[in-house]
Amino acid sequence: MAEHVILFAGPMGAGKTTAIETLSETAVVRTEAANTDRETADKDTTTVALDYGEITLAADEKVRLYGVPGQQRFDFMWTILKERAEGMVLLVNNDAADPIGEMLHFLDEFRDLYDKGGVIVAATRSDVASTPSVADYSAALSERRPDLIVPVFTVDPREESQMRTVLMTLVANIEMRSMFAVANPTAAASASAPARDGVSA
Ligand SMILES: Nc1nc2c(ncn2[C@@H]2O[C@H](COP(=O)(O)OP(=O)(O)OP(=O)(O)O)[C@@H](O)[C@H]2O)c(=O)[nH]1
Ligand SMILES: [Mg+2]
Asked: Domain of 38?
């Protein structure tokens, strides 16, 4: 059976734990503690180590879903889990003070996954704040890395069909990348380097 390891990252309260609860077919392993930062996210608990769930997308394709804490003080878990991941769903809350700045910050933190084109951006809480738009996120992404195509969605992490679309798009990207790497080993090696004049997905 093929397996993929996908990370759910992003700022506090963006909906990482919610997304994994929505997608997982197994009971989710959660590590929540009381939230002492109500200003950033007005909710009772926050992830302090990781979330873990699983979903089978096709008969022979299992996806391991890992959620990391949003708070920077728990970033040791980012370091551990980003080594294992092939791709990342970067969730960003649209109603934060500076969602685009948060997105760019997380892309810097998870640079290896970003550089190899394994990231999808999913803006949440767009029912609470309608801007930035998908076009705003995409413009910031192409300004940062014109050579990379990063899909951007608006999603509600409580909605299973929306989260499945995001996950399947990311897994399809990862599989395309690995087929390309098998067919063109030299080109794939240079495509994963931060080239400025090509386009890779
Ligand atoms: N209205 C609305 N609420 C949302 C949306 N997405 C998530 N939420 C809510 O926002 C909260 C998100 O909480 P979590 O899933 O714990 O967020 P998290 O990203 O895991 O946060 P940390 O673990 O603290 O970093 C939950 O109460 C969700 O129900 C959305 O699109 N719209
Ligand atoms: Mg969480």
From this structure: 2-191
CATH of residue 25: 3.40.50.300
Which of 32, 43, 65 most suits a substitution to test ligand 1, by most atoms within 8 Å of the C-beta? 43
Residue 20 CB neighbour total at 10 angstroms: 27
Question: Whose Cα sits closest to atom 7 in ligand 1?
Answer: 15
Q: Distance between CA atoms of 131 and 84, rounded to whole angstroms? A: 33
Q: Please give all residues whose beta carbon lies within 6 A of any atom in ligand 1, as ranges.
A: 12-18, 41, 43, 46-47, 69-70, 124-125, 127-128, 156-158
Asked if residue 123 is part of any domain, the answer here is: yes
Q: Say how many domains are in the chain.
A: 1
Q: What is the pTM of this model?
A: 0.92
How confident is the prediction along the chain (201 residues), in pLDDT tens digits per residue?
A: 889 999 999 999 999 999 999 999 999 999 999 999 999 999 999 999 999 999 999 888 999 999 999 999 999 999 999 989 999 999 999 999 999 999 999 999 999 999 988 999 999 999 999 999 999 999 999 999 999 989 999 999 999 999 999 999 999 999 888 887 778 877 666 655 444 333 333
Sign of CA dihedral 83, 58, 52, 89: positive
Residue 199 lies in a domain: no
By alpha-carbon position, which residue is closest to atom 14 of ligand 1? 15
Q: The tokens of 31 are what? A: 């590590």
